[in-house]
TrEMBL record:
Similarity section: Belongs to the ACBP family.
Region (Disordered): 648-677
InterPro entries documented for this protein: ACBP4-6_C, Acyl-CoA-binding_protein, Acyl-CoA-binding_sf, FERM/acyl-CoA-bd_prot_sf, Kelch-typ_b-propeller
GO biological process: lipid transport
Residue ranges of domain ACB in the record: 12-108
Name of the protein in its database record: ACB domain-containing protein
Pfam families in UniProt: ACBP (PF00887), ACBP4_C (PF24922), Kelch_KLHDC2_KLHL20_DRC7 (PF24681)
Gene Ontology cellular component annotations, sorted alphabetically: cytosol
GO molecular function, one term: fatty-acyl-CoA binding
Length: 677
């Protein structure tokens, strides 16, 4: 999420002490006890503000931890102690940042300050008649235009009804920001939102307003300059109604058009997830859907840069949910939806957020500006996406000032930068960098507190009748904006500066003249130290004879045609290789399907064997039970046999005794017993 660094021109540390006084603290270096005003914030915010105030005025926490029976003082100590050795200046700036997120209008309410006047600015420096002549010279007819003083200090340009229907094409003045007349209900003012152009319409999603995240989708028809709102829902499963819910609000995310849909990557949310989220919006169904990604997903963040390079998204830096700055590099393959964590060589940019990024020649990733909690940057870093090596090339032209929260958009080789803040106020100039020559120049400069000198604004490009237009929206510089501004960049650079894309070939380099002149742009080729991007020194001159220019142009065109043939041949080879890779992918997918079927068959057989084994185990248990019963029966039979043998033995003994008694009786003269057997 972009930070609101442009709300005032008051410098640090005075700005911090004014903010501390407004928040309810002493507001001076010697004060430490908070006043009752801090109670206006939620407990967690009040504790963080207290900790930052103590860190900024006293330093790191060295006092002993309070006793457990004093939970308030213990919570304050824990919050302060958690800041560790954070620098005093960083604590001051983070204090002001959090206050501005919670109470964006605090600066105008502070009793120590007076309201800053709004300075009206004239952006249309040329008169309407010369502008009309210039437009007609480019093949466009410019109707009579009326200018109306706008509330924000810029000039509104209104046209007749037949011109308004042309949308952004009605802007006929070059290199000037113009506020065109738009219709429809304007969106809520915001900053740190996402913007993307799809089929002639600019889609605005989310953002921050008064410290609260938004989740609406607003659409500006660039042909009619008419606002409309889309009632979008989020799809969490199938298309039944039970799977559709409201969209989660977010800010500091990135919107990327992809095919007929729009991707939303990362962003700050009220309840952040652990890993980054990738969502897809379908304008046809007005539904958001969460895309499943593979590989090692990056941690959640906001204020990062996401750049479309071919079929991949290159993400750099940002600020995580714990306000820690990042400088990691990740690439998402949009065909396989797989994240790749890149460990590039060289010295990367320092951790930062709210920077701008662009891609040149589908090979070089450029990172410009951004900020930490304590400072803003104006450095330029280049990453070679083929060798994955960082470099910091030499820049030429004007020296851009430090800024963060700015917006950037590319038109050909030109990279336009607008807005941003530098910890004191909004940045007033709109810059352009020729990415082939690394030469900075100023397109125009605004004055006063206007939306174009704001942080968190968005910048997109659209084409109308062969001409390019830049469209900005929103921003924050002490007040939130919902204004739309359009700039039509002039194409004053000649053929030499436009044809160079990446490293310059020897054929073209040999044909470029190296004359000292004073007005027309002629390049002089110098070998770059890093051998990646050629630095071309642009010099002026209109004293060169016309026939020499024509000859140079003809030779350049011939050289271009030759290189075009080479590029077409290379493109055909790449296409054939792509077809071959697609065929291999299809074959691998077919093999995968066959292996999946075999795996399912083996799983079925395994399940059947497991069932049979279970039945066998049941039978074994039953047989064991029967065997135990048979053993019991055998024991009982054996017992009966023993009892029988015992009985027989006893009967035999009795019989023998009876027989023996009869003989002795006979011998004694007694008669034998006749009753026996």
């Amino acid at each position: 999420m972009a930070t609101a660094r442009a709300s005032s021109g008051l410098a640090y540390p005075e700005r911090f002490y004014v903010a501390a006084s407004y928040a309810g603290f002493g507001g001076s270096p010697g004060s430490s006890a908070p006043a009752g005003g801090v109670s206006r914030f939620q407990n967690d915010v009040a504790l963080l503000l207290y900790a930052l105030y103590q860190q900024a005025t006293v330093g790191a926490c060295t006092v002993p931890k309070p006793r457990a029976w004093n939970p308030v003082e213990q919570s304050k100590w824990t919050s302060w102690h958690g800041l560790g050795n954070m620098a005093s200046t960083e604590a001051m700036r983070l204090f002001v940042k959090i206050l501005e997120e919670e109470d964006p209008a605090w600066y105008s309410k502070a009793p120590e300050l007076t309201a800053e006047p709004i300075i009206n600015v004239e952006t249309l420096k040329t008169e309407l008649e010369p502008a009309a002549a210039s437009a007609s010279g480019n093949g466009d007819s410019l109707p009579k235009t009326k200018t109306v003083s706008a509330e924000n200090g810029l000039l509104l340009e209104t046209q007749d009804k037949d011109v308004i229907t042309e949308g952004i094409g009605s802007v006929g003045i070059y290199d000037q920001w113009v506020a065109p007349s738009v219709s429809g209900q304007r969106p809520k003012s915001r900053y740190a939102h996402g913007a993307a152009v799809l089929r002639g319409k600019m889609y605005i999603f989310g953002g921050n307003h008064n410290g609260r995240y938004l989740n609406d989708i607003q659409v500006l028809d660039l042909k009619k300059l008419t606002w409309s709102r889309i009632e979008a829902r989020e799809l969490s499963g199938s298309l039944d109604s039970s799977a559709i819910a409201s969209v989660s609000p977010c800010a500091g995310h990135s919107l990327i058009p992809w095919g007929n849909k729009i991707l939303s990557i990362a962003g700050h949310t009220k309840d952040p997830s652990e890993m980054i989220s990738v969502k897809e919006f379908d304008p046809q169904t007005c539904l958001w859907s969460n895309l499943k990604t593979y590989g090692k997903s990056p941690i959640s963040r906001g204020g990062q840069s996401v750049t479309l390079v071919g079929n991949t998204l290159v993400m750099f830096g940002g600020e995580d949910a714990k306000r820690s700055l990042l400088n990691d590099l990740h690439i998402l393959d949009l065909e396989t939806m797989t994240w790749d964590d890149i460990d590039a060589i060289g010295i990367p940019p320092s951790p930062r957020s709210d920077h701008a990024a662009a891609c040149h020649a589908d090979r070089y990733l450029l990172i410009f500006g951004g900020g930490s909690h304590a400072t803003c940057f104006n450095d330029l870093h280049v990453l070679d996406l083929q060798t994955m090596e960082w470099s910091k090339p030499k820049q030429q032209g004007v020296n851009p000032g430090p800024r963060a929260g700015h917006a950037g958009i590319t038109v050909g080789d030109n990279w336009f930068i607008a807005g941003g803040g530098n910890n004191k106020n909004g940045v007033s100039e709109t810059l352009v960098l020729n990415m082939a020559t690394l030469v900075w120049s100023v397109v125009m400069t605004v004055q006063g507190r206007v939306p174009l000198a704001s942080e968190g604004l968005s910048l997109v490009t659209s084409t109308h009748k062969g001409e390019d237009f830049l469209v900005s929206f929103g921003g924050y510089n002490g007040r939130y904006s919902n204004e739309v501004y359009v700039l039509k960049p002039s194409h004053v650079s000649d053929l030499q500066s436009r044809i160079i894309d990446g490293p310059v070939s020897d054929t073209i380099a040999a044909m470029l003249p190296t004359t000292d002149a004073s007005r027309d742009m002629e390049p002089e080729i110098e070998p770059a130290q890093d051998k990646k991007i050629k630095e071309i020194v642009m010099e002026n001159g209109d004293s060169e004879p016309l026939n020499i220019r024509n000859e140079v142009t003809i030779r350049l065109v011939e050289a271009l045609k030759a290189e075009k043939g080479e590029l077409e041949g290379t493109l055909n080879k790449e296409q054939l290789q792509m077809l071959h890779l697609k065929q291999e992918f299809n074959d691998a997918e077919s093999r995968n399907i066959e292996l999946t079927k075999e795996l399912q068959s083996v799983r079925g057989q395994l399940a059947a064997e497991q069932s049979r084994c279970f039945k066998l185990e049941v039978d074994i248990v039953e047989l064991r039970q029967k065997l135990q019963a048979m053993e019991t029966l055998e024991k009982e039979v054996e017992l009966l046999r023993r009892q029988k043998a015992t009985s027989e033995h006893a009967a035999l003994s009795t019989h023998q005794r009876q027989s023996s008694g009869g003989v002795w009786g006979w011998l004694a003269g007694s008669a034998p017993d006749q009753s026996g057997p």
